[in-house]
Amino acid sequence: MAIKRYKPTTPGRRISSVQSFDDITKKKPEKSLLKIKKRKGGRNNQGKITVRHRGGGAKRYIRIIDFKQDKLDMSAEVLAIEYDPNRGARIALVQYEDKSKKYIIAPNGLKVGDKIIASKKDDIEIKVGNRMPLKNISAGISVYNIELVPGGGAKIARGAGTEVKVMGVEDKYAQLKMPSGEVRLVSKECMASIGQVSNPDYRLIRWGKAGRVRHKGIRPTVRGKVMNPVDHPHGGGEGNQPIGLKHPKTPWGKPALGVKTRKKNKSSDKLILQRRKKKRR
User: Could you tell me the sign of the dihedral formed by the alpha carbons of 255, 257, 258, 262, in that order?
Assistant: First the structure.
C-alpha cells in the first residue's frame, strides 16, 4: 500500500494523506463471513462509560477472522485481498480443499493465487503465510499472529505492519523480540504465521481533520487544564495555567502519563526476559 496526497484545495486536505487501495482485489465482502457490529459508545453492560471519547462513526460490519487456523495439513488458496474497516491490516479470503472459505490476516507480500498451509509437522516450508509451531521456526525469522496459549488462537502481532523476531528456541520456550523491544518467552508449541502483517504504511497516514477521525467513531478529547476544578484535577485558574500539581493525574485523581499500569507480581512476569524500551521525552 502507498500513501496518496491530494492537491491542497482546502486547509484540511493540505496536510492530510490517504491510503491507496491498489492492493485490494475484491470490493464486496463475503456475506457468509459477516456479522453486524453493535455500537456500545464505550459503555459496559451496566451502561457506564468505561472507555471515553467513543461514539458515532460510520456503520460497519465485522469480518469474522479465523485466528486459530486449525484446519491442519490442508492447503488453502488465496481468492482475494480485501479491506477491513475494523483494522489497519488487509485481510485475505482463502478457500481450503474442502471448499470452505475463511478470512485471515494477510501478510505483506501475499497475492491472489498463492497457496498457504498450517501444519504441526517438522517438514513444513517456511514461506510467507504458512503457519506452524514456534519450535519449527529458525532464529531470525519474522512472524505474526502468535498464540500465547497453545490452541488459544492468535493474540500477539496482529496490527498493520507488525512483526516479531524469533530469537531462538530453548527447553519449553521460544524467545521472541516484540516491536516494543521487549523479549518474551512463549511456549514453543504455540502456533505462529510466517511474515509481517500487511499494510505497513498505515501508520504514515495523516488524518488531517477532525471529520475523518469522527468517521472512525472517535469523539473529541478535551484537555483537563481547560476544564473547571469540579471536572478535573488540572482544572481551574484564570487564563492559560499550568496544572499546578507535582505530577499529572487522571480525571479520577490517579497518577497519569508515563506511570506503569502493569500489575505487580503478575504470573507472566517470569516470562519477560527484557522490558520494553522506555519512551524518550
Answer: positive
Cα(131)–Cα(125) distance, integer angstroms: 9
User: Are the C-beta atoms of residues 117 and 73 closer than 8 Å to each other?
Assistant: yes
Architecture field, domain 222-281:
Irregular (4.10)
pTM of the full structure: 0.90
CATH class of this structure's domain 22-202 = mainly beta
125-127-129 Cα angle (round to 5) = 120
Q: The C-alpha cell of 35 is what?
A: 456479522
- What is the mean predicted confidence (pLDDT) over 80-106? 96
- For the beta carbon of residue 3, count every other beta carbon within 10 angstroms: 13
Which three cell numbers mark 212?
A: 475523518
Span 222-247, pLDDT tens digits: 999 999 999 999 999 999 999 999 99
What is the b/e burial string over 137-165, where b = at least 16 CB atoms within 10 angstroms of the residue's CB? beeeebbbbbbeeeeeebebbbbbbbbbe
